[in-house]
Amino acid sequence: MPKALIPGSFDPVTFGHLDVIERTARLFDHVIVATVANPGKTTPLFSLTDRKEMLDEVTAHLPNVTIDAFEGLLVDFALALGVDAFVKGLRAVSDFDVELQMAQMNERMSGIATLFFPTAPEHSFLSSSLVREVARFGGDVSSMVPAPIAQRLKERFSS
Ligand code: PNS
User: Fold this and answer.
1) pLDDT tens digits for range 88-135
2) How far is the CA of 158 from the centre of ligand 1 (A)?
3) Active-site annotation, residues
């Protein structure tokens, strides 16, 4: 029963993430989408609970996908779950340097390889950070994130 793990901050989940999740769910028996409790970069806009809830909502149509969260090293979490592969999306060459480094580090530590999906061209410009910025200033994000996420962003920035 091959099992894939898609890790990320998902702050919030975008159509680009969802595309990678859907394509992975067609190839693996079980897909775990795991959001990191401590992204480390900046304080997340959405709490861990909110990010998990949003992932649950937008993947409800995918029966072999489960949502989880982890704190600490990704490889520790993955080894405990018996994961066979990590899956990440690659938007552009600019993603490649850091993603390759993380993939090699993770494989060195755990023996678990990372598979990359080239992001669909219509989503290649999307990032959670840009979505947050557009939403913060009242821009329309309906083509960038699923409707329930656009609604949550609207609520977050109207208060
Ligand atoms: O969506 P992101 O922010 O690009 O995801 C990055 C993430 C969460 C996959 C990465 O930061 C991570 O794995 N963090 C957990 C800590 C860890 O294992 N760090 C070593 C990576 S080689």
Assistant:
1) 999 988 899 999 999 999 999 999 999 999 999 999 999 999 999 999
2) 30
3) 17, 41, 91, 128
What is the pTM (predicted TM-score) of this model? 0.96
| Residues constituting the chain | 159
pLDDT tens column, 45-82: 999 999 999 999 999 999 999 999 999 999 999 999 99
* DSSP symbol at 143: T
Distance, CA of 32 to chain centre: 10
Is the CB of residue 35 below 6 angstroms from any atom belonging to ligand 1? no
Rg (CA), the chain: 15
**Distance in Å from the first CA to the final CA of the chain:** 45
Beta-bridge partner residues of 69: 35
